[in-house]
Amino acid sequence: MMRGALGRRAARLRHLRRWISPSTILLVPRVELGPLSYGIYLYMQSAVGRGPGARARGRSRIVLVAAGTWAATALARRSGASARFRT
Q1: Which of 53, 47, 19 lies closest to 35, judged by CA?
Q2: Do 7 and 27 belong together in one domain?
Q3: Strand, coil or helix: what is 46?
Q4: Is 39 found in the same domain as 75?
Q5: Are 69 and 83 in the same domain?
Q6: Is residue 21 domain-shared with residue 44, that is, in the same domain?
């Protein structure tokens, strides 16, 4: 019985090893939770896991950060902050 469970686990890990990229690091409290954590990771990376409108939300956040950066730069230039930090 133990041999069957270990065989199934080894087969599952061999299957997962094909899909795990070298840059994926999973921090889990126990080794046994690795496959489950990786499954959740894959789900959250898929379009279904991110939900509808994820691309639009990402783009709107990029525009918001760009506008904030532009406003902060314009405000700093207007107040003469750049002259104080020149070396």
Answers
A1: 19
A2: yes
A3: coil
A4: no
A5: yes
A6: yes
Nearest CA-CA partner of 18 in 42, 43, 44: 42
| pLDDT tens profile 54-84 | 778 888 999 999 999 999 999 988 887 655 6
Length of the chain: 87
What residues contact residue 57 under an 8 Å CB cut-off, 6+ apart?
none
How many structural domains are present in the chain? 2
Q: Are residues 8 and 45 in the same domain?
A: yes
pTM for the model stands at: 0.41
pLDDT tens digits, one per residue of 8-18: 766 666 666 66
Strand locations in the chain (E): none
**Whole-number Å distance between alpha carbons of 16 and 11:** 9
Q: What is the dihedral of CA 25, 30, 36, 38, to 10 degrees?
A: 0
Q: Any residues with CB less than 8 A from the CB of 41 and at least 6 apart, and which?
A: 24, 26
